[in-house]
Specification:
mainly alpha
Length: 140
């Protein structure tokens, strides 16, 4: 699931830059490639947050949307020769934060989903009194 939209990406980069990252020589962005990067970013977010929260998060918290934008833009740059240092730093910071959330060292503000319980349920096993045992079958 995508936690951001192409319009969210266009708040961080220009349409021309988006076209350079997605279209092969065109001036219009290839929105299928954009959608693929958004889905890849959403899957990455779910992978990290799935250990603590029920995913997908609905509605999308603003913090998760911002992280997904950074991840998606980095994935678009990864299609080309490489990401500029600022994009790589934003990606790495987003991943670090998502790892911290997964480890329970940070929280996502505004999540409507309940955190997944980390406590394990106890299972108790009981049975009837043993009829045949070493003591009762001693003469056989």
């Amino acid at each position: 699931m995508g936690y951001c939209t192409k319009d969210d990406l266009l708040t961080m980069i220009t349409q021309e830059e988006l076209a350079e990252l997605t279209a092969e020589g065109g001036e219009v962005p290839d929105f299928l490639v954009v959608e693929e990067a958004i889905n890849q970013a959403g899957a990455e977010v779910d992978a990290y947050l799935g250990v603590r929260y029920q995913v997908p998060l609905t509605p999308t918290p603003a913090q998760v949307k911002a992280l997904a934008v950074d991840l998606a833009i980095f994935h678009l740059y990864s299609r080309r020769s490489g990401a500029p240092p600022v994009r790589r730093e934003r990606y790495e910071a987003a991943v670090r934060f998502l790892k911290d959330v997964g480890a329970g060292q940070a929280v996502i503000a505004g999540t409507s989903g309940e955190p997944i319980s980390t406590e394990r349920e106890r299972v108790e096993v009981s049975s009837a009194v043993r009829i045949f045992s070493r003591n009762t079958l001693g003469e056989w």
